[in-house]
TrEMBL record:
Record flagged with keyword RNA-binding: no
MF (Gene Ontology): isomerase activity
SUPFAM superfamilies (alphabetical): Xylose isomerase-like
InterPro entries per record: IolE/XylAMocC-like, Xyl_isomerase-like_sf, Xyl_isomerase-like_TIM-brl
Keywords of this entry: Isomerase
Source lineage: Bacteria, Bacillati, Bacillota, Bacilli, Bacillales
Residue span(s) of domain Xylose isomerase-like TIM barrel: 20-263
Name recorded for this polypeptide: 2-keto-myo-inositol isomerase
Matching Pfam families: AP_endonuc_2
Isomerase among keywords: yes
Organism name: Alteribacillus persepolensis
Length: 279
């Protein structure tokens, strides 16, 4: 298995150029690039060609563009804006060699029937699949373990991906999100390994289901999530994709980014060793 770094982990105390330097220093294989803030910040003083050149000459490679947000159940105007953003992300992903674009579902206080959520998600993901195919880029749906997210459990997300039925549409399995809304391990055991494109490794403090927020995340192995159970299950099913560490801990934003990126790697490897995952 390959180890990836998600830029959310140093969201407030670093930038893309620094993250790339430190990921190279500490031997990460991949990075997930935040397209809503870190990439635009980088492009203020660099070109996308500069980024492509970096990846050509470095060990670390781009795994995913993260993310196209709130892709489903949008107004006609908002959907069109999302599609234009997605097309731009495809151009950049192809340029730098990123394999995936992460798609995040709508978060809203408006009540939407599950059948309407599924209909919209399937329709939009199919459209994204068609757009992405000529670029050789895949779309990774990331369910979010929060009550107000329209797609918030593994079973719901996996059902949508299976209904889409495209080779270039799959899932981000985030261990925090899996735990946060009480996703069922039996649903994971029944899923096809090919449906899982990216595995996010993280942990959390012990708050009740439905009350967890991203800020509750802690170093892998330092919380209450059954990481060994989740990761060993997907490995047994044949998953051999990248494991990406993604934390949003406010305390970690106060640390030196070098310390954060090193500790994120060390704690992730400690967990992966327990399930005999090769890194």
């Amino acid at each position: 298995m390959k180890l990836c770094y998600n830029q959310a982990t140093t969201l407030e105390n670093s930038h893309l150029e620094k993250d790339l330097e430190l990921c190279e220093k500490h031997g990460y294989d991949y990075i997930e690039i935040r397209t809503m803030d870190k990439l635009p910040e980088y492009l203020d003083n660099h070109s996308i060609d500069d980024l492509a050149d970096f990846f050509q000459s470095s060990h670390v490679k781009p795994l995913a563009m993260n993310a196209l947000v709130f892709f489903n159940n949008r107004s006609k105007e908002a959907h069109q804006t999302n599609m234009e953003e997605f097309k731009d992300m495809l151009e950049k992903a192809e340029k730098i060699g990123a394999a995936y674009i992460v798609a995040v579902p709508l978060v809203t206080e408006t009540k939407i029937l599950k059948e309407d959520i599924k209909h919209s998600a399937v329709e939009v993901l199919t459209e994204l699949s068609d757009l992405a195919k000529p670029y050789g880029v895949k779309v990774a749906l990331e369910f979010v373990g929060h009550p107000q997210c329209t797609i918030n459990t593994f079973a719901q997300a996996n059902d949508i991906v299976e209904t889409v039925g495209r080779d270039n549409v799959g899932l981000v399995l985030d261990c925090f999100h899996f735990h946060a809304m009480g996703s069922n391990m039996e649903d994971l055991k029944k899923a096809e390994a090919d449906n899982i494109f990216i595995l996010h490794i993280d942990d959390t403090e012990d708050f009740p289901i439905g009350f967890l927020t991203d800020e509750d995340r802690v170093w892998p192995g330092h919380g209450v999530i059954d990481l060994e159970g989740i990761i060993s299950t997907v490995i047994e099913k044949g998953f051999d994709g990248a494991v990406s560490v993604e934390l949003f801990r406010p305390e970690y934003y106060k640390l030196d980014p070098d310390e954060v990126i090193k500790t994120a790697k060390d704690t992730s490897i400690d967990v992966l060793k327990k399930v005999q995952a090769v890194v």
